[in-house]
Specification:
This protein is an alpha+beta fold. About 55% of the residues lie in helices and about 15% in strands. The chain has a four-stranded antiparallel sheet with strand order 3-4-6-5. Strands 1-2 form a two-stranded antiparallel ribbon. A hairpin with a 2-residue loop joins strand 1 and strand 2. The longest helix has about 40 residues.
């Protein structure tokens, strides 16, 4: 039987993945500022399949509150326009030829509160992911100790390392959330 190995770096890497995922999700949350990443989740019905918007057009930010979408294929303009409207981002494109202009409306107080709640949900999901990684790590350490592959002292030391990595990952998640919350609430 192959004995299990414990690698603290693997645990840290998996925890880092949770905060990177959170960063990506928070990046997609709309604040009052325009960001090209806002349109990343938009899927367009094009050429008989679903395609990400960035494979059909160039997204740029000419002004802080304006997105510009330059569609490469003239025949795809209507499909891109429909995908943006259907994406529930609350954006309505103004089309000029192959260029779609998207004004980013001011956020009202209620919308800001909703966005903060969504950000909290994302952060909680990331914390849960980190805790799952912690539990997996602790289980592996317990198994190794039970199988007498590591000493009780090693088990305690490794448990502390995992806990330290967990605390660091959760602190990073809390910091990401605090920054995003501040960004959302800034008028």
């Amino acid at each position: 039987m192959q004995s299990e190995k414990f690698d603290i770096n693997e645990v840290k890497r998996r925890m880092q993945g949770a905060s990177q995922s959170l960063q990506h999700e928070l990046g997609g949350l709309r604040t009052g500022r325009a960001s090209a990443s806002m349109l990343e989740p938009v899927q367009v019905d094009a050429y008989g399949t679903h395609m990400p918007l960035n494979q059909l057009a160039t997204v740029s930010v000419p002004e802080p509150r304006l997105l510009s979408v330059q569609v490469w294929d003239k025949s795809m303009v209507k499909a891109v326009e429909k995908a943006i409207v259907d994406s529930n981002l609350g954006l309505s494109p103004a089309t000029e030829g192959t260029v779609l202009r998207l004004r980013i409306p001011e956020l009202n107080a209620d919308r800001r509160k909703e966005l903060v709640k969504v950000a909290h949900k994302y952060a909680e999901a990331a914390r849960v992911a980190v805790r799952h990684v912690r539990r997996d790590g602790m289980d592996t350490i317990k198994k190794l100790e039970k199988a007498h592959e590591i000493s009780e002292d090693d088990q305690k030391r490794l448990d502390q390392e995992v806990q330290k990595a967990t605390d660091a990952a959760i602190a990073e998640i809390d910091q990401l959330l605090a920054n995003k919350e501040k960004e959302i609430m800034t008028v």
